[in-house]
Structure formats: structure tokens, C-alpha cells
């Protein structure tokens, strides 16, 4: 049995992989340091020494088996695989969380059966990952930064990264939250709408116009990805993918009108199958596969 972990800015997700099934999936607040996580895991899962190892998905840049950059994690988490092996007392395989989520989807989720895919993760930020010819494509470590592909570099809104017109400045949860705030303050949407989740469940012409615009922008991103990579699947994940039914029609419309050689392409755009668990699953499955998948 392998322990899968997905360590994010605010939460840890954990589960035990037995065969291809995930058991005892749990979610809890992220402890301040990895040593405290081990204590928490012992309380929740019992003796860890019976496990074959740990697949660790983590929210940051993993290079040469070391977490080297993680804006949402304290420095105590910036460790190497070897250091994590000492902390857990078990063999560890580390992977960036979005990469791990895509690996999970490819092996036991919405990407199953495909040789190539892109994941667009619509969370507070916009993440991405690439799977080409049956394995993760990481570049030198940073591949898949879909959120910071420039869409409108001269005229677009300012992004958290400091550039203008990034994908994230249109599609990220923080950008949606800002739209909600502005429109609520102007009385253009009901006063009890606070989060993107609220916005996904409410109906009004103005709200639908927002989701149509959202889908149009996402459609353009998908067109850019398909023109560059011609992958078989584009998977859409992250919290905002719950609004799929609101933005997918506008997105499909863009694909139909903008994609070159559409009739020759063999692709589908789909929501992920395991929005909460893919990172845990992927981290554990990558550990099981061994090597540098
Ligand atoms: Zn940016």
C-alpha cells in the first residue's frame, strides 16, 4: 500500500492506494511543518511503517527532486526528496501537484486511453500540466504554465505575476472574485453572491453573460493549446470547473469557429473525473510506477 499526499497552501489531502483504488481519503488543514504532518498522519492512518512509500504531490516548483519555489508554503516545506524520506521514514516520490493531478487523470480518470493531454486547472490561480506520448512533459521544470500565457499583453488586466493580460487575469478565481466584488458594489448582481461557487449556481442575464465571456476566453486558450500541441484531450479541472455547464457552450462555440483543420483533429475537451482526489491518486500511482514518469 502506498500513501498518496497532496499538500496545498491551506489543505492536505491524503489517501491510501491499494491496487488502483484509493481508500480512506481525507482532507484536513495543512500543518505548519512536515514533521507535524507525520504526527497527524499517524493519528489518522495508524502506523506508517506498514506502507511501501509515499507519493507526495506538492504545490510548488519541483526541480531535481527538490521543492525550490512555493509561494503558498512556508520554508519548512522546501525540502528535497531525501529530506522527506528521513521525515517520513519511508521511500518518497515528489511531484508538482498539478502534474500529479494530470497523471492521476491519465491513469484512472478522464484521460484514460489517451496518449496526450493538457490539464487546465481553474483554481484561485490557473495551473496547467502536459502529458505527451504517455508521460509527463515538464520542460526544465516549468512547463504547463497555462495561467501565464499572454492573451492580451498590451491591453489586458494586470495579473498577479505583474504582467498584463495573462490567462489567469481572466480565468483565475481571484479575477472572478474581483468581478463579483465590483458588480455587487454596483448593485448589478444580488448582494448575497460572494464566491465563484455562488456565481455558478445563480441565474440572471448579467451572470450568464459573465459565464459566456468566461467560456469564450477559455475556448481561446484551448484553441491556442490545440494549435500548438494537437493533443487528444484537454482536461479542465480546479474548483471553477464546477461551473462547467455555465461556460462550456460558449467555449464549444469558440472551438467550432476558431480551430484550424477542425475536421482533422481527434480531440475532446472534458471536465476532470476526480476534481478532489486526482493529486493524491496521481502522486501514489507515480510512486507505484517508479522511475521518472
Ligand atoms: Zn500572469
Note down, in words, how this protein is organized.
- This protein has 293 residues and is of the alpha/beta class.
- The chain has 2 domains: 2-101 and 276-289, Nucleotidyltransferase, domain 5 (2-Layer Sandwich), CATH 3.30.420.40; 113-271, Nucleotidyltransferase, domain 5.
- 37% of the residues lie in helices and 23% in strands.
- The protein has 9 helices and 12 strands.
- The strands form 3 sheets. A 5-stranded mixed beta sheet has the order 3-2-1-4-7, sandwiched between helices. It has a 5-stranded mixed beta sheet with strand order 10-9-8-11-12, sandwiched between helices.
- Helix 3 crosses helix 9 and helix 7 (205-229) packs across helix 8.
- The chain is globular, with a radius of gyration of 19 Å.
- The two termini are 19 Å apart.
- The structure holds zinc ion.
- Zinc ion binds at residues 148, 159, 161, 163, 166, 168.
Q: Give the bound compounds.
A: zinc ion
| Strands side by side in the biggest sheet | 3-2-1-4-7
Oligomer kind: single chain
Please identify the top-level CATH class of the largest domain. Answer: Alpha Beta
Secondary-structure content class = alpha/beta
State the share of residues found in helices, binned by percent: 25-40%
Poorly predicted regions are none
What is the distance, rounded to the nearest whole angstrom, between the alpha carbons of the first and last residues? 19 Å
Total of helices: 9
Mean pLDDT: 95
Main pleated-sheet profile = 5 strands, mixed
Order of helices and strands: EEEHEEEHEHEEEHHHHEHEH
Shape: globular
- Tell me the CATH topology of the largest domain: Nucleotidyltransferase, domain 5
Summed up, the domain count is 2
**Per CATH, which architecture of the largest domain?**
2-Layer Sandwich
Compute the gyration radius: what is it? 19 Å
CATH superfamily of the largest domain: ATPase, nucleotide binding domain
Amino acid at each position: 500500500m502506498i500513501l498518496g499526499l497532496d499538500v496545498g497552501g491551506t489543505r492536505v489531502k491524503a489517501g491510501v492506494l491499494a491496487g488502483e483504488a484509493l481508500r480512506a481519503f481525507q482532507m484536513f488543514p495543512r500543518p505548519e511543518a512536515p514533521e507535524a504532518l507525520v504526527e497527524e498522519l499517524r493519528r489518522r492512518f495508524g502506523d506508517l511503517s506498514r506502507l511501501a512509500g509515499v507519493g507526495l504531490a506538492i504545490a510548488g516548483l519541483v526541480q531535481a527532486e527538490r521543492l525550490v519555489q512555493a509561494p503558498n508554503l512556508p520554508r519548512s516545506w522546501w525540502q528535497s526528496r531525501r529530506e522527506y524520506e528521513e521525515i517520513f521514514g519511508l521511500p518518497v516520490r515528489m511531484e508538482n501537484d498539478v502534474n500529479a493531478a494530470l497523471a492521476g487523470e491519465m491513469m484512472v480518470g478522464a484521460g484514460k486511453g489517451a496518449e496526450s493531454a493538457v490539464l487546465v486547472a481553474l483554481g484561485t490561480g490557473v495551473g496547467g500540466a502536459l502529458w505527451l506520448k504517455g508521460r509527463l512533459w515538464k520542460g526544465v521544470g516549468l512547463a504547463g504554465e497555462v495561467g501565464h500565457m499572454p492573451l492580451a499583453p498590451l491591453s489586458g488586466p494586470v495579473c498577479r505575476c505583474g504582467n498584463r493580460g495573462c490567462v489567469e487575469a481572466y480565468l483565475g478565481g481571484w479575477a472572478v472574485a474581483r468581478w463579483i466584488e465590483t458588480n455587487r458594489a454596483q448593485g448589478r448582481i444580488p448582494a448575497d453572491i460572494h464566491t465563484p461557487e455562488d456565481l455558478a449556481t445563480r441565474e440572471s442575464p448579467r451572470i450568464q453573460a459573465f459565464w459566456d465571456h468566461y467560456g469564450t476566453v477559455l475556448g481561446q486558450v484551448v484553441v491556442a493549446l490545440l494549435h500548438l500541441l494537437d493533443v487528444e484531450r484537454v482536461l479542465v479541472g480546479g474548483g471553477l470547473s464546477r461551473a462547467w455547464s455555465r461556460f462550456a457552450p460558449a467555449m464549444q462555440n469558440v472551438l467550432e469557429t476558431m480551430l484550424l483543420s477542425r475536421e482533422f483533429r481527434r480531440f475532446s475537451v472534458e471536465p476532470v473525473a476526480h476534481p478532489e482526489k486526482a493529486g493524491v491518486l496521481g502522486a501514489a500511482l507515480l510512486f507505484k510506477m517508479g522511475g521518472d514518469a
